[in-house]
Structures are given as C-alpha cells and as structure tokens.
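Moderator note: this is an archived Q&A kept for reference. The question asked for a predicted structure of one protein chain; the sequence and the answer are reproduced below.
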Amino acid sequence: MTNRLDADAIAFGTLQQAAKWFALLRSDSISDSDRISWQKWLSANAEHRRAWARVEAVSQQFETFTPEPEQSAAVNALDAASRARKQRRRALKMLTLLCTTGAVSWSVGQLEPVQRSWLAFSSDYSTAVGETRDVMLADGSQVWLNTASALNARYQADLRRLVLLGGEILIETAKDPAVPTRPFVVDTAQGRLRALGTRFTVRQLDGITQLSVYKGAVEITPVAASGSAQIIDAGQQVLFSADGIEIPSAVDPANEAWAKGVLFADDLTLAEFVVELSRYHKGYLACAPEVAGLRVVGAYPLHDMQQTFAMLETALPVTVKATFPWWVSIQAR
C-alpha cells in the first residue's frame, strides 16, 4: 500500500536508510552521537528528507509515535523553505486528477487514511486494505469486493445499478426476479458496463477502468463517447477511458483468483508481483532494484502475508526484511 501520488521518486536504498534511522531513534539504545549522525544524514540532501517524511507518514497510519523535540526541529528547519512549494504542487496535482476524472479514479488503497475512511463511510459496501468480502444483492446477484474497495448499490424500478467508487469487484449476475427484467449495469468514472448474463471483474485504475469477462458478455459505453459502445465477450479483457476503448486481449485468469484468497503469478517479475501484493499489505512494501527482475511463478495466499513471504524466500534468492510490521522490503539474500 505505497503512496503512488508522490511524483518525486525516492531511491530504494535511501528509503531503507530512513527506516533504519527511524528504528534507531525509537530504540532505548540511541546515543547522542547517533542523534548527531542522524541530523547530518538528514541535512545531507533533499532526498534524505523526503525519505524521512515518507517513513514518518507511513508510520503515522499504524502507530502513535511522537518524535523528540530535536527531531522535529531539525526536520522543520531543513524543510521550511520547500514545504509550501510541495503542498502547492500536491494540491494542484490532486485537483487536476479530480477534475480530469470527474470522480475517485485510483485504487482506494492509495488514498490517505482520512480519505479512505470517508469513502468507506459514504459507500454501501467497502473493504479495508488486505480484506475481501462477498455480498449477495437483492436480486440474487453476487459481488465480491477486493482489497481497499468501495461500492454503492442503487436498485431502482427500471434499473439494477452498481457504482464502483474505487478498487475492484467480481460480479456474477442472477436472473432478475422483477417483471419486466431490469438491465444490470456498473458505473465507473470512465463509463458504464451493461452485463449480458455474465461473470466479470471491474477494476478502477488511475484514470482508466479494466474489464475482464469470464462468462457471457459485457457492453461498455465510455462516458464521453456514448455513441461508441462495444461488447466484450467471455475470454476477453480490455482497458477503457472516458474517451474510448482499447483493443481487447485474452483474459488473464489471475484477475479473479483474488476472490479465492490467492494471488496467482504466471511468470511475473518480482517488481510486478510486489506491486500487486502491496495492494493487500498494510504499509510500505517494495523490492530492491537488484532483485526486481527475478521471475515469480505460483499461487500465494493473500490473507497470510508471512506465509507468502516465506514462500518467496524459498523460491527465490531473496530475504524479506521487516524493519517494522508496516515497513517491509525484499532484498538479495
């Protein structure tokens, strides 16, 4: 669950250094010379300060930690000149994102904690990071919510409508008991999907929606291109934006494995695998550049992170290091 809204990339090694300093400053064994060394490291360059801020931000989501006065003073003094500029850039970035998508259009797991809480509170159904759940709707249709997802159900006399606010869902539609039967649709920020007797997944990505169809068919109508509806048949998956639909490709069976509590890797790079796994991890999860290209194959349990980490250590020449429960890195053994 790393924050991908920050455009300023921070090197993996620098983030690990920041995490180690964070751990040392919290320990009982810290000395005055350690504090001086930390302050020198912090003042060495701006990336160190960004890395420290990232670790602090992640830590504050999971535990209470009040930095010592000299820690706060050092960071404040070093960052005072740049903080206003960073806040303006972030505000503009968020505003642009909201304006261009017209709704929440990124994974709920990537939102700040307050935003996630608000979205969960304002939706009919939601899941926390690392949680999945299944829901039986009023017409007998079944919906599974993936990690960090939010959904509204708006059934009307003439329409069965779901609104995906963020995250991912798997849907298996049932025959409508109403007469006449009502269409079953799913709305995302990018358009409307109309189910044609089907089983399919819908995932809300950054400014784009991913549809995978396993049974039946689904009709897509992009929100800004209402005259360009297209039917996607079983065995196909596709990405679409508000303006159009990309060329469909063969469906990836792994796209629905999460509903069974499994993350299926079919020759993924470790970097790709970690990106998917991080959706279910509460905190920071990343791999070192030198092991990012290793290939991952197999089925990994989503609801037992320790077992998944142990399987990775068995299958690959890596070690999983947890500086904190919420700060985990995968490095070369």
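Archived answer notes: The helical segments are 12-26, 32-44, 46-60, 69-101, 113-122, 270-277, 305-315.
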